[in-house]
Design goal:
It is a single chain. By secondary structure, the protein is mainly alpha-helical. The protein folds into two domains: 1-31, no CATH class; 37-104, no CATH class. It contains five helices and no strands. α4 (38-58) runs antiparallel to α5 (68-103). It is flat. The N and C termini lie far apart (48 Å).
């Protein structure tokens, strides 16, 4: 339905917000998960992107740096690495402190 709305030039923000707020569908679950790890994602995102970029610049992968498909692939890979680190951070570090906070 959203594709149809974009094709006609009309984007219904109420539809997008309703899709984001529902926890039943896969989109709602994805946004709930991103909300669950949002602080860790905020902390590690810049670090992952800068370190991965510097690594790629020093290796043989620099030949493909300006290819649009390569840029999309690296963005997806960097994002996946950031989400994984943020999840591990939330699960094994942040929750310990949140439990301590709940007991006081």
């Amino acid at each position: 339905m959203l594709v149809l709305l974009k094709a006609t030039g009309v984007v219904s923000w109420k539809f997008v917000l309703a899709a984001m707020q529902t926890a039943r569908g896969p989109l709602g679950k994805a946004f709930a998960f991103l909300g669950y790890i949002s602080y860790g994602l905020y902390l590690v995102n810049w670090f992952v992107f800068t370190k991965c970029d510097s690594f790629l610049e020093r290796t043989a992968f620099q030949l493909h740096l300006h290819d649009p498909a390569w840029l999309v692939a690296t963005f997806i890979a960097y994002s996946a690495i950031s989400v994984a680190i943020a999840f591990v951070s939330r699960r094994y570090m942040e929750e310990r402190f949140l439990r301590l906070k709940a007991h006081t």
